[in-house]
Amino acid sequence: MLGRLLHGSPGHPLHPPLTDATIGMFVLATGLAAAGAAGLVGEAAAKGAWLALAGGLVVAAPTAVTGFADWLTIEWGTPRWRTATLHLTAMSTAVALYGAAAWLQWRGYRDGTVTAGGLSFALAGLVALTAGGWLGGAIVFVHGMRVEARARPDDNPPRDDAA
């Protein structure tokens, strides 16, 4: 039962869908901070950026727990493990940068402005988040982690039209 809570079920891992929520909130926060700093949306952007930062940090907790649980299952020293360790490092860095952005943007939330620190750390977080997401994709699409390839009844064999 604990295994399903941490890893999901066969063919349906839990960590990837949680990353969608976390990444989405952090990207939204960065976009709102940039829009607010550019004067496009004003107070709503400043408040929305902080709320998205806070939401991203909340969702990052279960995302990190499930990702760490998956990381523990990888054979140490393998190419998959090295990629996953880089992913873990990049994503931990991103969460720390977004945490700093949230702390620095709190004053902006109250005042209805985007702070320079909140914007700067959100942009730096986006760089780390992008690198970490790219590495996470490599864990699945290059190293095949948690992928179950099964033939489906509707799969057709390739045709030999030369005959």
Strand order of the biggest β-sheet: 1-2
What is the count of β-strands? 2
Strand content: under 5%
State the helix count. Answer: 5
SSE series = HEEHHHH
Range of helix content: over 70%
User: How would you classify the helix and strand content by structural class?
Assistant: mainly alpha
Categorize the overall geometry: elongated
Distance between the termini: 53 Å
User: What is the CA-atom radius of gyration, in angstroms?
Assistant: 20 Å
Which parts are unreliable, with pLDDT below 50 for 5 consecutive residues or more? none
The biggest beta sheet is recorded as: 2 strands, antiparallel
Average pLDDT for all residues: 90
Descriptive notes:
With 163 residues, the protein is mainly alpha-helical. It is 72% helix and 2% strand. The protein has 5 helices and 2 strands, in the order αββαααα. A two-stranded antiparallel sheet has the order 1-2. A hairpin with a 2-residue loop joins strand 1 and strand 2. Helix 2 runs antiparallel to helix 3 and helix 2 (15-37) packs antiparallel against helix 5 (116-141). The protein is elongated.
